[in-house]
What does this fold into?
Amino acid sequence: MSADQSSLVSRWKTAISDLRQGRAKRRTYVILMVVALAFLAVLPFVAGNYWVRVVTGIFMFATLSQAWNVITGYTGYFAFGNVAFLGTGAYVTAVLVVRYSVPVPVAIVIGAVVAAVYAMLLGFPLLRITGHYFSIATIGVNLATREIAFNLPSITGGGMGITMPLMRVSIQTFYRYIYFGMLGLMLLCTAAVYLLMRSRTGFAFRAIGADESAARSMGINTTLYKVLAWGFSAFFFGLVGGLYAYWFSFIEPPMVFNPANAIKIVAMTYLGGIGTLPGPIIGAFILEIISETVWGRFLELHLAVLGLIIVFVTVFMPNGLLPLIRGESSLRALVQNLRERRL
It folds into this structure.
């Protein structure tokens, strides 16, 4: 056998080995996903109401982080005021249910559509600015939307808030409904992002995030696609906001337009791995469990710790925990990075 033939055989063997390893990894991922979903499906029937509520909150923040990841992680625009659309979805849902007796599922969908349209209308002027100017503008959007809710007492209840009717079932049954509703939103959002990022629209999002000027030179209407990315993100924020309002049955402006939620979403996304599909979910599970079991005893330090986590991850672990979980990085590499960046 000649040297060229040996090299060709060696390449074929390597390719076949890589293919088999890829199939084995995919098979492992599928098995893990099935086991995880089976566990989550059984959990509300065997766990107490406290842990059902905690895991429901994890699903909620995982969905919000996944949706926020589209405009920030993929498209590259740091939308720090996205909680405005959470509040919009919550208030539209509550008003439709309380004032107009619209069925809750229909009201939630309408609230999400209104939140998406609101984001897209704001997006055409705001998404023409970049960097920290855009981030500051989104904070202003959240504050302005909160003030609108405060100053329309005849519709929103103003500072007194608005109370939604309770479902006529036991507390445990109600918690299970909300649990599976939030789980469904998390899965729906993740599937939507997965499909979106494999479409031409997703390619445009990634191109803008990588180099907006280059994307524009390729003929991509960057403003339009940025608006679509923000609208997509706002739609799922609105869905979560509507279900959140029904879960707590009472909402008020400081509750649904809370900037602290934005900080948690940022920390979760960066911790898991920004710009990746599983990263926001991983970050939400880790951070929310820690928050409930440890930080709940130190309320004053909660936001400070979140801020430190964001700084630490962005400086020393810019890709989050996902490379460690996948085995693409190691703790030794992290320690080495810490030593190299030591002041």
In short: Residues 159 and 246 are 18 Å apart (CA to CA). The first strand starts at residue 162 and ends at 163.
